[in-house]
Each structure stands twice: as C-alpha cells, then as structure tokens.
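Bug #77: duplicate submission created two jobs. Keeping one. Sequence:
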Amino acid sequence: MKEEILTGLIIGLSMIILGLLVYRFKLDWVISGYNTLSKDKKLNVQIDKIRLLFRNFFVIVGLILCSNGVISQFSEIKFVHPIVIAFIVILFLVFNYQIGKYDKNQKGGMITIYRLFNR
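Kept job's structure:
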C-alpha cells in the first residue's frame, strides 16, 4: 500500500514542478499545439495567459494526485480513484476550453475545444 502513496507523490510533485517550470522559465516548446505554429501565427497567441493556465492546471492536478495517494491509503472509501479521474478529465476540458480563448488565429491555430464550439 505504501507504493500508492509514493507513486501519487512522485507523479503529483512532477506535475507541480513541470507547471512551475513552464511558467517561470517560459518553456513554450512543452505546450502542445503552440510549438508547431508558424512564427506569424504565434504572434496571434497570448502565450503569457496560456502559460498561466498551464501552470494552474498542472499544479492543481499535482496537488490532487498527491492528496489522492494519501487519502486512498488512510481511508476506507473505495471509489476515490474514479472520482479523482473524472475530476481531472473535467478540469482538462475546462482548461482546454479556456486556452482556446487566447488563440486569435482564424484558421490553423491551436486545436482546442473552444474552436469546436466557437466557429
């Protein structure tokens, strides 16, 4: 059972560190979709706001995963993992939609859920 806590902590801390590194050191090549845009299209993207959303998503998910490992170890609740997975998927969809708001390219920009609903 201690492997669950260790795994949750390692993955959670890795995600937190990744989010902080991307925001602090401007590692834009890590952000999928942005790194493949041409230089002209990159000018139409508010990358500072996307970096902030990226950091927030990874820090929140990292904290959720760290706490999930601890809660599942010390709790008798058996349905913690499916709830956490569903919550992370919902967070991903919400953050993906928000990222699309900051891509002002008309065609050929970053592929996000925002583009599906706002054409």
